[in-house]
Amino acid sequence: MNSTPPPSTAELAEQHGLDPAEYDRVLKALGREPNLVELGVFSVMWSEHCSYKSSRIHLGKLPTEAPWVICGPGENAGVIDIGDGQAAIFKMESHNHPSYIEPYQGAATGVGGILRDVFTMGARPVANANALRFGRPDHPRMQHLVRGVVAGIGGYGNCVGVPTVAGETNFHPAYDGNILVNAMTVGIAETSRIFYSAASGIGNPIVYVGSKTGRDGIHGATMASADFGEDADAKRPTVQVGDPFTEKLLIEACLELMATDAIIAIQDMGAAGLTSSSVEMGAKGGAGIHLDMNKVPCREEGMTPYEIMLSESQERMLMVLKPGREAEAEAIFRKWDLDFAVIGSVTDTGRLVLEWNGDVVCDIPLGPLADEAPRYDRPYLDRNAYRAWAQVKSEQDWPESDDIGGDLERLLACPDLASRRWITQQYDSQVGADTLQTGGDAGVVRVHGTGKALAITTDCTPRYVYADPYEGGKQAVAEAYRNLCAVGARPLAITNCLNFGNPQRPEIMSQFVHAIEGMAEACAALDFPVVSGNVSLYNESRATGGGSAILPTPAIGGVGLLDDYTRIHTIALEGECEILLLGTPQRALGQSLWLREIHGIEAGLPPRVYLEEERAHGEFVRTLAGTSSVAAVHDVSDGGMLVALAEMALAGDVGLELLGRPDADACFGESQGLYLIAVRKAAAVLRERAMAKGITCEVVARSGGDSIRGADWSRSVAQLRAAHERFFDDWMQTARPAGS
User: Fold this and answer.
1) Residue 133, Cα to own-chain centre: how many angstroms?
2) Which of 420, 458, 533, 534 has the highest count of CB atoms within 10 angstroms of its CB?
3) Among 350, 346, 299, residue whose Cα is nearest residue 319
4) Average pLDDT over the chain, rounded to whole?
């Protein structure tokens, strides 16, 4: 019986997301019409999610090198040297569209996928983080989405046994129809045992391990490369289904085999499944790939080569082994109750060749699928034209506050600043017994068996990026840098997840391009390179109740190193201290939460980021690590100085007195590069040290008592804590029909 699939058509290509020009490129690459399997392979490899066709030319602007960078972008995850023969391996990725369609499984498999990106390189995962963006809390679906996403992250990470130690959660109407779920994993490996994905060795066996292949997730990469229409729920079958217990077995089995010298190359099966893993391994190694589809372990009857290649079933890996090591590897995976199958071999053809029932059902040169995939220089607006389009005005006369204490209470209660306890209590942050801090400026995890620790943060302020993509891109990187410095860590590198709308709209493309340029400038100035990342485009919705594009959200995941974890800084005030503000505040009420939450105004330019000052301030703060007189350190960000002071007071359960009569701008302006430093004694000495470095440093508050108070206002710590805890407690007790 002939198993060769029938030829495709231009209409079928369009249904697969290929436009006429791209289909013409397919015809030229093959010299003939593709069959259905080949069309499916082209469609997923040329999807935005896999090919980065609208972003690749701009991603090259990002700094990616430093003496401590072992591996930058291009592999499964980035690798940095943390000394003593050890490396930190980390990456952030998106699972936005799946999480909107099916929030629990979408978020859970997002965690599973990023874990595999890290342990496929030889690292044991030690920490997870996330960055979540949701729409209006009163949107009819939002409670269901928040519940599902948080449960999915916790359900997967907790079962695998990797602590979730950092993250951020924000709300804005722009995410009503397209939420963002960005997941990050950090792992530790020996620098001598890092594994890469380039296939090599003609005739070497290609091995499939992990779970069986099913029909879940077919066309997931293509779905993630288009905006949502009215048919969002119909895309539910494209969402993968995860099993964290199998993932845990897969981690242990892979690490056990990695302790031998049997593996030549390894790649996880993520977006586009077996297609992307085999194509990427072959292309990176300059080799060819030959696979026998009949040998792929399948859990469903009658699966076709098309379905097998495009399935995004979870907990699967592809390996190239040294010849003769198959039995040894199989014994390990069988011991862990996982599937193992030799499904093909490395060739010298430079082609992807698939067989099914003895017939060749796919024969494609790898070049057009990988490096020679389409690459677009999309039109975009210059910065002035973008500002005109966004209707952003510079200086304005902002309102004053007639109730500083009342404004503080309202800000602490708003969705963007309210306590995340309802979220974090669903995550196991202590599994592994190496977590030193959560809930401060950065999560901190001890490097097991050493005196070192890694600090981890996720940061971005999308409203800044919308108002000024260039300045907002700078700020996202600078805030990650600042949060790491605040806990006493030396910032080493970042990963990113660049979430934007439709790149075929010039205004959206300008957001992307200018944000990249701002990020690049900040990374270079702060010596804070990008070592891995992900681009998620087409985050838009035409569905009923949704808006259009999301706010541009270039989420940053930062990693830093503490050489001595006993010298960590926390944000909690202790007893009686003087609190100094390090840095010079600017007038910075534009795009502030105070304007939005108190006055209903989203307007103005975001605060400027002065990178020389940012670096000088961060380096100075790091010199304070372990200083006995320093009780707490906290950076100033959303909500401004007074909100940061209140967060320190709530963390330490102690009150404070604000000195002088600061106005709304001083209290709630969101100037960049500022730190609050609580000193038990000798504040004058610290101030003199800062001034000697040319850094402004002034005492702005004194801790003590059981209230936060100004010259003519006061709020008890208990009253502010009740306001801070109110949002999630009240919202999640309000019953709503699931999925309504």
Assistant:
1) 11
2) 458
3) 346
4) 93
Interacting residues of 404 by C-beta distance below 8 A, sequence separation 6+: 642, 662, 664, 667, 710, 713
Catalytic pick among 16, 95, 617, 634? 95
Place of tokens 């490395």: 346
CB atoms within 10 A of CB 599: 16
Tally of CB atoms within 10 A around 613: 18
Q: Which pair of tokens denotes residue 632? A: 């707490």
Q: Which tokens go with 556?
A: 């940053």
Contact present, 471 and 518 (Cβ < 8 Å) = yes
Q: Is 49 a catalytic residue?
A: yes
Clarify whether 95 is annotated catalytic.
yes
What is the per-residue pLDDT across 706-735, written as a single tens digit (0 to 9) for each?
999 999 999 999 999 999 999 999 999 876
Gyration radius from the chain CA atoms = 26
- From 494, 504, 474, select the one nearest 534 (Cα to Cα): 494
Catalytic residue among 49, 58, 139, 569, which?
49
Q: In angstroms, what CA-CA distances link 461 with 8, 81, 599, 601?
A: 45, 29, 19, 16
Name the H helices within 435-532: 462-467, 469-486, 506-526
Q: 0.90 exceeded by the pTM?
A: yes
CA dihedral 293, 332, 216, 158 (to 10 degrees): -170
Both tokens assigned to 720: 């502010």
Q: Which domains does the chain carry?
A: 196-373 (3.90.650.10), 381-418+569-734 (3.90.650.10)
Q: What is the DSSP string of 612-662?
A: HHHHHHHHHHHHTTT-TTEEEEEE--TTHHHHHHHHHHHHHT--EEE-S--
The first and second tokens of residue 58, run together, are 């701009």
Tens digits of residue pLDDT in 93-110: 999 999 999 999 999 999
Neighbouring CB atoms inside 10 A of 669's CB total 26
